[in-house]
Fold:
Amino acid sequence: MSASDSIAASDVVPTGYRDLPDAVLVADGTGQVIVLNPAGERILGRAAAEVLGRDFRDVLALTDHAGRNWWDCTTPYSGLATRTGQPENRLLLTPFGGGESREVLVTARYVRDRPVGPVIRLVVCLRRATARQIAERGNAELVSIVAHELRSPLTSVKGFTATLLTKWERFTDEQKRLMLETINSDADRVTRLITELLDISRMESGRLELRRQPVDIPQRARSAFARQIGAGYSPDRFVLDVLGELPEVWADPDKVDQILSNLVENAIRHGAGRVDVVVQPADGGGAGVEVVVSDQGSGIAPEVAPRLFTKFWRDGRRGGTGLGLYITRGLVEAHGGSIDVETAPGGGASFRVRLPSATPPFAR
Structure:
């Protein structure tokens, strides 16, 4: 590629740059701006016509967090002739024409007419750091929550195990059984948390696999009740109603168990009184099955409802990771279904899950 191939300064942005979601600025061999795409106009707050022909260092006033001028440190047009560019850096951008600096992620590419020739084009890619910051804060919060949730059961497991090993003969069989049951319960809590983390990772990376087979939804609901009864809740708190003839549903039974268990446990933890589960054909008959899980608590405030299925949402009154409903929605949507929340007829919260029917050719 020769210098004559460089893009002439023009108000017309080449299609390849125009369609990019990230901001792109291109300078020629003399450092003059020859291209600024629409995303670049938005991030700089200036039209391309205002910056074309100007020195790239004036248009992109970039400094690192120590206050050093990034272009003075990187010297794109001098230095080693074998350099191909700069990896992504988190820098501060002062808008062209003045204004408050803001954090951006910057990557630079040096285009040469031969492997060790002079730079004939500087291509700079920018994106706002907001999304990255949100992701990093989310990761930090996840680590904090996981550490907190793991500490309690692991401390219990370690404490009771050490006690039994050193003082076995001092305890009665009933005391030993109680400590072993506590260890078993806390081990289940750790296993459940690890399962949640793996589900989040698979959902967010698109690697969640469903092993579909015919699923008896009412039987799965009874199993969810049985787990809560086994944990010490009264059988009188749980009511299952099956209305009408249900179509066959092909789904992942383990994931359906997880969906129903999360919703029933949520009704117990955040609701009050009886937990009602209604299983009925979805609208359209053969379209699938609808499962409604309701409690008799204080209900869901309208301003809270949109946040219920977001990651880390907690109401502040109870513990937990704030991941249960987020995972539940992900599992439901992975089946092609939907989940909504509304106020139950008798008060309390009512979660409505719709799982579509699927036939064996769609099983995987």
In short: The two ends are 49 Å apart (CA to CA).
